[in-house]
Amino acid sequence: MRSYLEDDLSSVRLVASDMDFTLLADDKSMPEGMPGRIRALERAGALFAVASGRPLYTLQDLFGASCDHMAFVSDNGGAVVCRGEVVFKDLIDEATLAELVAFTLERAPEAVPVICGLERAVVPSWGRAHDAALRVYYHEILYVDDVTSAREEANKFTVYFPENNSAAAYEERFAPAFGERLSVTCAGVDWLDVMNRGIDKGVGIARLCEHLGLPMDDVVACGDTDNDAEMLEAVGHGYLVANAPARMERFADFRIPSNNDRGVAQVIDAVLAARGA
Question: For 29, 31, 47, 250, which has the most beta carbons within 10 A of its beta carbon?
């Protein structure tokens, strides 16, 4: 793959990035100076967007005062917010959520089902044993005996695999059962995400571009794993971090430095330089 330094960034007006193992280092830390970079992009006539499987409320906690100067494509495209304005949201119906919960409890007893509400996650009471791992991504969690009894507006269903076997569970169980009518994807070795059919990060970026009046050709997208594939393919500048697995190379055109080497921050700096900022 070619280096992003060979790419022409002069027309870029949106920089979108996945979070885990892309923007964030392995220790989950943010690159230094991100608030300043976000504001600098805005001043230069561009915008920074996070495209993540994480929910909006968790992402907003992480970005604080920068929230009104950026966009969020949260829950793998299930909700899009730009500078505080809700641009798009897609909800999973209650019957489908109940079916997914029942399937997980029966066919993946080693895993924890999570209903991803717009304002909080709903988890079975016994899942509290994994609270530390869950709360990294879901800052608001409601533990209940019967998760289907909680009436939540939800745009994603996710499954946490403590044994890091999400890929095998996807191939052997979830994709055969739901792949033809829902969007099912791995979000790392320990997570599997389910959204409505046709919902993914690429669709979320497209909704954001429609709102902003931007062509997809003017978008840089940075990612590392399967739930980034549609986004990397959809934009004009698909960037893969150096730490990404080889199977992802077919979805992107350029390599950037790894998450630990702060590749996304370097890309933002390159875009600012190309725009004369």
Answer: 47
Q: Which two tokens stand for residue 37?
A: 């970079």
pTM confidence score = 0.86
pLDDT digits (tens, 9 = 90+) for 86-102: 999 999 999 999 999 99
Q: Tell me the pairing of strands 254-256 and 2-3.
A: parallel
Contacts of 259 (CB under 8 A, 6+ apart): 21, 22, 23, 24, 25, 26, 224, 241, 243
Phi, psi for residue 237 in degrees, rounded to 5: -135, 90
- Residue 74: CA count within 13 A, CB half-sphere: 30
pLDDT digits (tens, 9 = 90+) for 195-247: 999 999 999 999 999 999 999 999 999 999 999 999 999 999 999 999 999 99
Residues 6+ apart with CB under 8 A from 13: 45, 46, 47, 212, 214, 218, 219
Is 4 in contact with 254 (CB distance < 8 Å)? Answer: yes
Distance of CA 92 to CAs 24, 33, 63, 88, 148, Å?
Answer: 29, 37, 27, 14, 13
Distance CA 266, CA 12 (A): 15
